[in-house]
Batch of 3 targets.
Target 1
Amino acid sequence: MAANLNLPDRSGDGGVADRVGAEWRRRPWWMNLIWLFCLYMTFIYLPFDLFIKPVAVDQEVWFGFMLTGWAAKLTAPLHWAIYAAGAYGFWKMRSWMWPWAALYVAQVSVGMGVWSLLDPRGGLWTGVVSTAVMAVPAIALWRSKGRFAR
């Protein structure tokens, strides 16, 4: 038997849950996932990558080409800026996110294919599959121009 705490019903009163729910409904589910990924990269992964990860093991991939060591460490702030802009742009649904988000994800899609062909751990089919998987959100972002505020 559940305890009756006689708490007031606060649904619909503009509380935190309502605000979070309203924010979550501003975007389709897949765009919320991209937004969460941008938040993760901005506030968790890239600070770790820049300030904690040793230069000797640092890696960044740009257009399918892997940079290591100091080249990776010095280009990581650009990735940080891109993800921070994405986190803010998706949060506020800024108009400048279209077409830039779609073009960035399309570049990642092509880069995944290039990296798979250049890296010994990859291969043709790995490249085809990873390129196709990343093309899905790129196309979805391209087709979502109307969702971004003017």
Note: Residues 24-144 form one domain.
Target 2
Amino acid sequence: MRRVAHYAAELALVSPYTPMGRVIAIANQKGGVGKTTTAINLAASFAAAEVNTLLVDCDPQSNTTSGLGFAKDPGRISSYHMIMGAASAEEALLTTELEQLWLIPSHKNLVGANLELVDAEGREFRLREALAPLRDRFQFIVLDCPPALDLLTLNALVAADAVLIPMQGEYFALEGISELLDTIDRIRQGLNPGLGIEAVVLTMFDDRTNLAQQVRAELQNFFGEKLCATTVPRNIRLAEAPSYGKPALVYDPRSKGAESYIRLAKEIIERQALGTGLRTSDLGPQPAAVSDQAVAPAAGGIAEGAEAPAGQQGAAVEEIPAADEMDKTA
């Protein structure tokens, strides 16, 4: 734990004091981009900065809950009970291995919440109202959203101050970004005027490929300073840690994955200290992969037969070395 203490001291130097917690939703409707890994390890890194942090599992798959070492328990109070008004957020709190990290677990019944909330009064504000009594207790509240733009994600975005968007450095990761940004903008206009984009972070990033570099360049042109300088690499320890019910910071603090999330937490804390906010209206031209000409009006995705991103056509992607040649150092 000496290494964890070292990181805690480093983060504490940049950790600002805020009277009320900052709510950050980890959202991207595309699955497999590292939302849960980011939620767990970013929250753990905030807690390592010696500030009270709450992690809320809003995904019916409950991977954030199991990733912190909590087995399935049908009788346990969860985010489902909290959203449905059957229990308070205070009653759902669980302590974790990290002294200043708390968890509100998920439950498979959240799958049905999308249907149960359809006709409910104030359905979009359930999570925000439930978390309101806790905002002065936690400096950071991290929401792990499901991979869909459904009522659960809507509740998280209405409750949030900002959205952190994890993205892979691959072409398909760009396809749904316009739909997500449109959703954020609509929520700002009608439900949560203060909602902004905290940052965009590249996950499972391999900077040895031309494609990853091209995707990063497209995102840099579009998001500008909101694209994090920190990237999260593919890392064995990050993949192993959830099976042990631990954040990477606890499982192996010397791993590249743990160190990258420490840097990400530091970068976000510094951004908060500087007070840099971003609205979707402040963004530059859309990335070539999601330009207006390529987006289908009905689906919000890429139109069939759309051209590849500028600079990508005919570009050769560097081959990743064979498995026995890859660097496996964690």
Note: Strands lie at 22-26, 53-57, 94-95, 101-104, 140-144, 162-168, 196-205, 227-233.
Target 3
Amino acid sequence: MKALIYKNNNIEFIDKPKPEIQSPRDAIVKVKLSSICTSDLHIIKGFVPQAKEEIVLGHEFVGEVVEIGSDISNIKVGDRVSANCETFCGECYFCKRGFINNCVNGGWELGCKIDGCQAEFVRVPFADKGLTKIPKNVSFENALFVGDILSSGYFGVELCDIKENETLAVIGAGPVGLCAMMCAKAIKNCNIIAIDIDNKRLNLAQKLKFADYTFNPNKIDIEKEVNKITQNRGADGVVEAAGGDNTFELAWKIARPNSVVGVVAMYEVNQILPLPQMYGKNLIFKTGGVDAIHTQMLLDLISKNRINTDFLISKVFNFDEINRAYEYFRAKTDDCLKVAIKYN
């Protein structure tokens, strides 16, 4: 089969043997659509030390089950499935508490420690947990981002413990930030402040009716504007989805006292926690990889037309064009949000 691997801080399109069942809880999935994640770019740049050389990249995909292990009973050959970006057993201390990113038998495996989805076929460990059947009225395109980007956006909202009609600030109007806004609107009915230095992305957030307010920190004083909206209290929760040079600082500055800052961004440099400056704000910081345990709920919301991530697909490439897809995504050509890679 054809596959895209990570090698010497670059990518290479190669022929590779089709994966085989290795465990009774494995499944083999024929990939129908995949996408490229910023995390894939972090691997190529060398910012993910746990990533193994010559691994098949990718962890964001949908497909059709073609083979299952003997212990799999909740999915069958021929099922259309959405894949979770996390590999998790469902049985360890962390899994039982919903912290699947910290599964002692898994975590971020696909496309990092084991072969991922940017190949014609992929082996999914613990497939009874990591694959979710796609409803009949939901297309592969509709479901493509459920297991990662959509789950990450929802995770940011969940971390903030936001309540109905409260004000949530989302820093970063990229794919994760937009999904956070969409989920907060659809599920929590929040007032949303979208913050980004890209006016086109802010305009998109407004056009999609995900945001009530849009602010560009290069043009206005964000703290001042947030205080105007919130009677000088600050935002009831802040999702930091940008990972920029000063976005972590902005997040805690615009959060009201006794609120939560949910950090779902991946940084390339260390961030500073200036405790003396924030003393008395009594903030709670929650951060880490996505615990993507709500895929069924998110698919149900898509099925009921309450949310829709089709707007994320900026361009579709065929699998044999995947090198061009990486160039397009890396360069953010045409204001690219996400790409979809189509397989035969």
Note: The mean pLDDT is 96.
